[in-house]
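If you are new to this repository, start here. Below is one unmodified record pulled from the training split, so you can see the exact layout before writing a loader.
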Amino acid sequence: MRENSKLLIGFFLVFVNGFPQSVEERISNGVELHKAGKYDQAIEVYESILKEDEKHIEANYEMAFIYSMLKEYDKAIKHCDVVIKSKSDISHLAYAIKGACEDYQGKPDKAIKSFKEGIKFNPNYHNLYYSLALTSYNQSKFKEAEEAVIDGIKVNPYHASSHMLLGFLKYDQKERSKSLLSLFYFLLLEPQGKRANQVFTLIEQQQKQGVSREDSKNITVNIRSDFDKNDFGTAEMMLSLMEASRETEVNDNKTDFEIFSNTNNSFFKVLGEQRKDKKGFFWDFYVDFFYDLIKDNQMFEAYSHHIYQPTNDSNSNEWLKNNAVQIEKLMFWLETYKHTY
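And here is the target side for that same chain:
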């Protein structure tokens, strides 16, 4: 009986209302079933197509996609390989799924190989760079991870996860300024949600780094002995000094938001003034961007409120509510900004 019902379902998938469906229509039906969580039925659609053409590219890709979600990784990889060998315009997507499946199987070296092959095939697909960076990062291959995530940001500077990963990576490497710059850019792209809350907490933690208090009159600031040999040393010393002065008279009448905004403005300004002939991705991408941002007071005010959302500050939320146009201008400026790197 079960076999008969499967045959009837298969017949229905090929014929609707008495009319035969094209392969494209069946693929579309399968995608809709997938979206609805009806994975078994979607698989039956694709299997009906593969019985007619076992190398059908889209059907193999959709099968790989579903099996990866069902954690049936060997099956997913099998279908990925068909798509990859076709060298079609979606083969790069199959490389991404294959690498992810290999990573989930506990085979990071194979995953890294797949991601690299995918990048070679299509160097304009940023997700492959991010996947390569994440897998490398999880293997503590920090140099390879940094190179991959930066290459990915160059392809797509609006991929929030890449900036977050770079910020975490630089935090692990104790490169405070580089971590902060990456995380500040992440918050511009994603100012709400669990990840934004996590990033904001890490930003505050790093801004307070090197400062310890016994009470408001007994504050110790620890400055790295090699700060003058570090391109970012002056800015990091300034951060510590500003944190140390947080509870002094100069800040008596300032809100936490105002202190946060002023600290960030000073940080970006010091880095921008030190820019000169310094080279490297962090100077070219982040420092130039934020230095240009603070030159427009209204734009920087909008940015400050925008990234302060994780605090759920009532005054800041009210400002955002009343200044939606300023946020739109900020987003337009972000979208049209021309990075040089």
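Two things worth knowing about this chain: Residues 256-274 form the longest helix (19 residues). Residues 1-14 have pLDDT under 50 and may be disordered.
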